[in-house]
Amino acid sequence: MEVTLTHYLVLSTVLFAIGLIGVMRRKNLLMLFFATEILLNATNIAFAAISHYIGDLTGQMFAFFIIAIAASEVAVGLGLLIVWYKRTGKIDLDQMNSMRG
Amino acid sequence: MFEAIAFYLFAALTIVMFTITVMTSQALYAITTMAAGMIFISAFFFILGADFLGAIQIVVYTGAVMALYAFGMMFFDTTRKVVEKRGNPQIVFVLGVLAAVLVVAIFVAPIVSNNIHALYPAHEGVGNSQAIGMVLFTKYLVPFELAAVMLLVAMIAGIVLAGKKMDKSLTLMAEEDIAKAHPQHESHHSAGGHH
């Protein structure tokens, strides 16, 4: 019944797959942001587990920087989303084609 | 034994919560289950002995990020059902193959990592927070400062983007009024010569 590194990596992979499913099936941009948060958290679990089982603090350092990046991503992304919603009244990904890309 | 019980309990809870986040069509259910999932993830950090990381996870994610999302959702229509995407099957196939390759890589990684050694081994006899401080302010000082600058830039960007013209609704204004309210757009368009 001992919990090994593989258990944590399997859990991290499962959570990452859930986030990936969310990224693939969501059209609402706010829901897409939620899915990216799940992806980042899944990698954080893997970093912390590897850091614990190898006895090195580098994994936790990377997890900290990932959390910092996630926080700033949310601030900037939500600001852009609010501006876009004020202009168009929609936050669907399909309607963001003003650049004809 | 206790560790195994805690691991399986929180693993099941986290997976259930994040599945609801991804699958539900209600935005409020999504944000609530995601906040709960973030709290449960911090439990893994406490199990792994990364106490400081677990506290940061609770403070930053459920304190700051979730509050920011809740604030952002005040602008959007949350009672409306979220419409789902009818996906392109080719893209889904390619992404599925990529995810499978990723799973293989993650499973191979511990086998490879048997050869590596700890670069900055944890100090003996000090707590997790103290050891984090020792490593963070010696080896990772420059990335730490860069992260601080990045957070400052993100804060200013958030204030500028969300706080400007908060008393006006640009959706309810006519195009001419918007152009009048933003004279720099007008000059930019005339200078560009297209549009």
Entry keywords:
heterodimer, A: about 100 residues, mainly alpha, Helix Hairpins, 3 helices, about 0% strand, elongated, B: about 200 residues, Four Helix Bundle (Hemerythrin (Met), subunit A), 3 domains, 8 helices, disordered C terminus
Compose a concise summary of this entry.
The complex is a heterodimer of chains A (101) and B (195). Chain A is built from 3 helices and no strands.
Characterise the protein shown here.
- The complex is a heterodimer of chains A (101) and B (195).
- Chain A is an all-alpha fold.
- In chain A, helix 1 packs antiparallel against helix 2 (29-54) and helix 2 packs antiparallel against helix 3.
- Chain A is 77% helix and 0% strand.
- Chain B is mainly α.
- Helix content of chain B is 71%, strand content 0%.
- Chain B is built from 8 helices and no strands.
- Chain B has helices at residues 2-23, 27-47, 51-73, 89-112, 128-136, 141-163, 175-181, 183-192.
- In chain B, helix 1 runs antiparallel to helix 2 and helix 2 packs antiparallel against helix 3 (51-73).
- The longest helix of chain B is centred in the middle third of the chain and has 24 residues, at 89-112.
- Residues 185-195 of chain B have low confidence and may be disordered.
- Chains A and B meet through helix 1, helix 2 and helix 3 of A and helix 1, helix 2, helix 3, helix 4 and helix 5 of B.
Write the layout of secondary structure elements.
The complex is a heterodimer of chains A (101) and B (195).
Chain A: H1 5-25, H2 29-54, H3 58-88
Helix pairs in contact in A: 1-2, 2-3
Chain B: H1 2-23, H2 27-47, H3 51-73, H4 89-112, H5 128-136, H6 141-163, H7 175-181, H8 183-192
Helix pairs in contact in B: 1-2, 2-3
Shape of chain B: extended
Structural shape of chain A = elongated
Determine and state the CATH class of chain A: Mainly Alpha
How many domains of chain A?
Answer: 1
- Strand proportion of chain A: under 5%
Distance between the termini of chain B: 67 Å
Rounded mean pLDDT score of chain B: 79
Q: How would you spell out the order of helices and strands of chain B? A: HHHHHHHH
Instruction: Provide a count of the helices of chain B.
Output: 8
Number of strands of chain B: 0
Distance between the termini of chain A: 53 Å
Number of domains of chain B: 3
Task: Report the β-strand fraction of chain B as a percent range.
Answer: under 5%
Q: Please tell me the CATH architecture of the largest domain in chain B by its name.
A: Up-down Bundle
Low-confidence stretches of chain A: none
Q: What percentage of residues of chain B falls in helices of 4 or more residues? A: over 70%
Low-pLDDT stretches of chain B are: 185-195
* H-E order of chain A: HHH
